[in-house]
Amino acid sequence: MKKLVVCALCAAMVIPAMSVSVSADSKELVLYTWENMFPQEVLDGFEEETGIKVVYSNFDTDENMLEKLSMAKGGDYDVVVADDYIIETAIQEGLVEKLDTSKLSGWDNINPLYQGQFYDPNDEYTAPYGAGIPLIVYDPDLVDIDIKGYNDLWDESLEDSIALTANYRVINGITNLALGQDFNDQDTDDIAKTGEKLLELAPNVRLIQDDNTQDSLLNGEASVAFLYTSQVTAALQENPDLKVVYPEEGLGFGVMGMFIPSQAPDKDEAYQFMDYILQPENAAKCFDYIGYYCTNKAADSLLENQDLVVPDSVTEGSAVENISAEAEEAYNKNWTEFKAACD
Amino acid sequence: MKKHKSGSVWMILPLYIFTIIFVAGPLLYMVALSFAQPKAGHGVEWAFTLANYKKILDPVYMKTFTGSFQLAVTSTIIICLIGYPFGYFMAKLSDQWKKRAMIFLMLPFWVNSLIRLYGWMIILQTKGLLNHVLKSLGLIEKPLRILYSYPAIVIGMTYVLLPFMILSVYSSAEKLDWSLVEAARDLGASPFKAFWTVSFKLTLPGLLSGVILTFIPSMGLFFIADILGGNKIVLVGSLIQEQMTKGNNWPFAAALAVVLMILTTLMIMLYRKVTNAKELEGVG
Known about the structure:
By secondary structure, chain A is an alpha/beta fold. Chain A is built from 11 helices and 11 strands. In chain A, helix 5 (168-178) crosses helix 11 (325-341). Chain B has a two-stranded antiparallel ribbon with strand order 1-2. In chain B, a hairpin with a 5-residue loop joins strand 1 and strand 2. Chain B has helices at residues 6-33, 51-56, 59-90, 95-106, 113-124, 129-136, 150-174, 178-186, 191-220, 222-227, 236-245, 250-283, and strands spanning 37-38, 44-45. The longest helix of chain B has 34 residues, at 250-283. Chains A and B meet through strand 7 and helix 11 of A and helix 3 and helix 11 of B.
C-alpha cells in the first residue's frame, strides 16, 4: 500500500514537469485582452508563420487587467490590449515596456491620427489597435442643410430633431471643438463658455439616450444623430442612404492600445506578434472582425467594411483624457443644466 | 400602552435586528456618505464637508427639485381627476362587475412596468399607432410629436400610478354608507350638493392617501422621464442615478437622496396632520 502511494506521488510530480518541458520546446505567447478581440484566422496564421502558440487570456474590465498586471509586477503576460485611459496609469506605474520600434517593421503603417495621444505622447509604449469614434449621422431626405461639422448642429432648421448619446464628457468635448477650444479643456472659465454654448443647442435636441440611439434615426423620431461607432455601423446597415459626417472641427475618440508589459516572459515573441498584427493584411482582418475604426493606414484599402476607414481629409483628433476633479465637476454641471434646458 | 410580556420581546427581536441591519444601516451609511468627499477619478474620501449640501443650493440643482415637484403636482392632479371618479363609480357597481373591474385593474401589474412603457413608446412615436389612427380618421395632417416631450412623461406617470389612486378611492367609497346620501336627497339636497357634502367628504381620506401614494413615487420615477421623455428633463431621481453612475460622485448623490427623503417625510407629516383634522371634523 505504501509503495502504491509513493508511486502515485512520483507520478504526480513527474507529469506536470513533463508538460512544462513540452511547452518550453514549442514557443508560447500569452495574449491578454477582452474576449473576441482577434479573429481565430489571424491567431492561427501567426502560429503557422512563426510556430508560436498564442494563449488567449481574457479580462472583462480595464480595471481588472491593471490589477492583475500590477500583482504580477508587469510579468506573466506578453502582449496586452486595453483602453487608452488605463494605459496611462499602467505606464505611470512602470508596468509597460518601452518599445524598440526597430523590431517592428510595420510600425510606419500606423495612422498618425491616433498617435501622440495623451496616454503615450511620444509613442514610446503602445501601438493603437482600433478606435471608437462618435460621429454625426443624418438623413439627407429630412435635413435641408449640408452638415459638415459640430457647428451645424446649432442650425435653427434642426429644431427638435437631434438625438444625442448620453456621455457628458464627449458632448462637452464636441462643444469645446465647436467653440475652437481643446476637446479636453480644463480651464473652468472655458468650461463655463462651453456650458453657455450647450444651452443654445438645447432647442434642437429631441432625445438623449445611450442605448440604441440609432433607432430614433431609423424610425423617424430624429433626423440627425450623434452616435457611437457600433451604432453608426448598425444604422448604416439598416439604411445605407444615411450620411456620415466626419466633423471638420476634428474628432473626439477613444483608442485601444497594444503594449508589452515591462517584465513580459517572452519579449521576442511579443515583438513578433505585434509586428504580425501591424502587417496590413492581418490588421484589415482584425478590424473587420472587431468592428472598430482602423488605426492602420496601410490596411485601410484592404478592409471589407469601408465604413471603418476614416477619410484622408480627417487629420485632427483627440481622445477623452483623464482630467482634474474640478474640471470634471464643471462639465458635470454643464450637462445637468443642458439636459434641463432641453425641454 | 400595554406592557409586553418578556417572552414576546424574543419574538420581535429578529425583526428589530433585521430592520437595523437592512434599513437603518444603509440609511446611516447614506447620511454619512453625504458628508464625505468624492475622490478624483473613483471612490470616496472620508473627510467631513458640507460642500455636497451647499452644492444642492446651486440654481442648476435647485431647478431639478422644483422641476420634479411641478411634474409630481401635474401628474397627481390629472390622476385625481381620472382616478377619483373611476374609484367612486367602481364602488357603485354590482358585486360581479366589481370583481371584473378589479381584475382589469390588476392585470397590467402582471407585466413589468418597463415593458409597458416601451409599449407606450410604440403608441406615441411619430410613425406610431396613435398618429396612424388620428391620421386615418382625418383629425390631423401632420403627425403629432408627442414622444420625448413633457406630455409624454405626464402620460407615462399617470398610466403607471393611476391604479394606486383608483384602489385607494375605491376602498374608501366602498365603505361609504349610501343611506346617508339618500337621506340628504330626501331632505331636499340636489344630487351635486348631496355628493359634495356627504360622499365627497367621506371619501376624502381615500383621495388623500391616493395623493400620497402617487405624489411621492412620482418625485423619484426617473425611468419614465428617461424612456418617454428622451432623458431631457432632469428629475431628482435621474440626477441621483447619474451622479452615482456616470458622474462618479456618490457623496453628492447621497446628499440629494437625504434632501429628497426629508422632503417626502415632511409631506407625509403634513398629510397626517390634514387627515387627522378631517377625521375629527367627520366625527363632530
